[in-house]
Amino acid sequence: MNKKNIRILLEKVKNGKIDINKATSTLKDLPYKDLGYARVDNHRSIRNGFPEVIYCEDKSLDEIEGIINEMLKHDNNILATRAKRKVYDRIKTIAPETIYHQRSKIIFIKTHPIQETESKVLVVSGGTSDIAVAEEAVVTARALGSQVDTLYDVGVAGLHRLLDSLEKLDEAEVIIVVAGMEGALASVVGGLVDKPVIAVPTSVGYGANFEGLSALLTMINSCASGIGVVNIDNGFGAAHLASTIILQIEKART
């Protein structure tokens, strides 16, 4: 249940269209619902602006289905990350409107229209090998309502590719930079713009890349100001942070 639904419920109580007992019954699972194996946080969208997101790795199909069934009762759009194809095949049987984004491994169930923001997130990738993580950021940000554009394969080995697209950097309010290898792209972008840059190191790279650790350390130690860094391969976390920033920008516009 989100703020809009609570307001509608309270208006119905106020106008006598629903009695207090029925309203209390509707709200009884609002803080969270204890399923035994999971406590579904039905209150999160009210606190944080966005509903809880399901992380599917190491959860059984029955557990994921149970969580989704509970969330469907509360009229929130549902996002499930790191979901394998078999998870989608299972969830499709209970929610036919389910969409699977295979490259990003994200399941999305759209229960109501998404109002797209005026402000824009730009997702930039160093190389084509980074696109899976970049797409996790793209799909997440769009599901959370952010307007999203992309700029892929503009890594520092061919810097002219980035410099030829400076107008895209200028158009965005928040930029997510996804890069593996040595992760230098985030510093380059950070030195070119006057807006928040969220850096995502990826595990893409050869042996001494240490599965993304070298890119992570480069981004943390960036000499460019205004760069925040999330964990390795965490496109979801970057998109959630970017969408939170966008939400504040949109509030300031009104």
From TrEMBL:
Single Gene Ontology MF annotation: hydrolase activity
SUPFAM superfamilies: N5-CAIR mutase (phosphoribosylaminoimidazole carboxylase, PurE)
Pfam families: AIRC
GO biological process: 'de novo' IMP biosynthetic process
Record domain PurE: where: 119-251
PANTHER family: PHOSPHORIBOSYLAMINOIMIDAZOLE CARBOXYLASE-RELATED, SLL1489 PROTEIN
Name recorded for this polypeptide: Nickel pincer cofactor biosynthesis protein LarB
Gene, per the UniProt record: larB
